[in-house]
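2.7 Reproducibility. Because tokenized structures are sensitive to small changes in the input, we list the exact sequence used for J domain-containing protein, including any N-terminal residues retained from the expression construct. No trimming or masking was applied before prediction.
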Amino acid sequence: MTTPEAESTPSEAPAAEPQGQSAGGGRPEERLERAVLAAEQALIEYEIAVETFRVEVENFSRLHHQKLGPMYTRLDELEAQIAEAVAARSGDPEDLRKADEARARVMPMPAVEELFDLWMDGDGLSPEASAMLTDQPVRPPQRVRPSDEARKLYRELVRKAHPDLAQDEQDRARRDEFIVRVNAAYGRGDETMLRELSDEWAAGPVPEARKPSPSEELYERLEWLAQRKELLTAVAQELEESAIGAMLRMAPDDPDRLLEEIAEQLLAQVAEREAELQRLVGEQAAGS
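Resulting structure tokens (single pass, no recycling of outputs):
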């Protein structure tokens, strides 16, 4: 995949200029703003290229499975029948082992219920999944009634953090979220978590962070763009190194034609293996 190269990449942050000065005598942030704009445009183009290639890989994979999957299945079946015919004629343990392995490759996959037997309930969900979907504790409680200490901690926390004690809407939202966690911990009888929640409430709300300066915000934006570029580069590399990506690189201009060529090769292999099977069956019939 061809990746766009920009004159100014997100990973290259400009050097700081003397405070109050810029190349054009304007605001100090102007050069940073231009660098951020250039990095954003370069990243957009790069992301378009990566996404375009991802779509091609995904579509090629689906078409490959749809059009060529039956041919691969037929080849596996022919290989199994050939191995079984050879084993039946020779009776050699090694041939019998190879025949079993070849047949195993074309055996149907077990059904989902067989794979997850005893893990699913009547609705097809595991107990853990069912609990998560119904907002119930994932782990069952250790006892019906929580301990006296857990009950004490719970009552203290509710009395202190009840949403009706809120002074404003922001405070109410904080209390609502906190009480949800308190109720969940109490439902599990989790004394340790209740103590941690008690300490958290006693510490008070987290103070708002200092608002960054315009220059700091621009540098943070450049850093985020650089990290995003690294992530996209990793995605692109994974796509290019995949089996489908490697096949696409063989015919970057006409991937649809590549599918046709592979289909022709598979058809030739199927015809060859069918002829081999007919020969073995004929020899076996003549020998008997």
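The first helix runs from residue 30 to 90.
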